[in-house]
Amino acid sequence: MTNPILRFELEGLRYQVLHVLGAHQEEIQQQADAQLKKVIEGFDFESVIQAEATRVLEQVVKESVKHHFSYGEGRKIIHDAVAKALTKEAADDAR
Predict the structure, then answer these.
(1) Which whole number is the average pLDDT over 55-72?
(2) CB under 8 Å to 28, separation ≥6 — which residues?
(3) What pTM did the predictor assign?
(4) CA distance 12 to 18
(5) Which of 4, 10, 58, 75 is the most buried (most CB within 10 A)?
(6) Are 76 and 82 in contact (CB under 8 A)?
(7) Cα distances (Å, whole numbers) of residue 58 to 51, 52, 62, 74, 81
(8) Which residues of 22-60 are buried (b: 16+ CB within 10 A; e: fewer)?
(9) In this structure, which long-range contacts are made by residues 51-58, counting pairs with CB atoms below 8 Å and at least 24 apart in sequence?
(10) Mean pLDDT, the chain, whole residue set
(11) For every residue of 37-56, which 3-state class applies, written as one string?
C-alpha cells in the first residue's frame, strides 16, 4: 500500500521540478548558449577532424582489404596459389 503513496509523492516532485525549470527557462537557455559559445570558440576542430578522418579512413581501408581477400580478386589469387601448391604436392607424392 505504500507504493501508490510514494509514486504520488514522486510525481508531485517531478511536476514541481518541471515548474521551476519552466519558470527559469530563459535564464537556463542563456547560460547554455553562453557555455556552448565558449566551448565552440575554444574547440580545436582541425585536430578533431584530422583524428576522426584518419580513424575512419583506416577502418575503411582495412575493411576494403579484408573484402578484397575474402570475396574479391585477392581470394581468387589465394585460391589459385593454394591449388597450384596442392597440385605440385600431389605430383611430388606421385613420384
Answers:
(1) 96
(2) 21
(3) 0.53
(4) 10
(5) 75
(6) no
(7) 11, 10, 6, 19, 28
(8) eeeeeeeeeeeeeeeeeeeeeeeeeeeeeeeeeeeeeee
(9) none
(10) 89
(11) HHHHHHCCHHHHHHHHHHHH
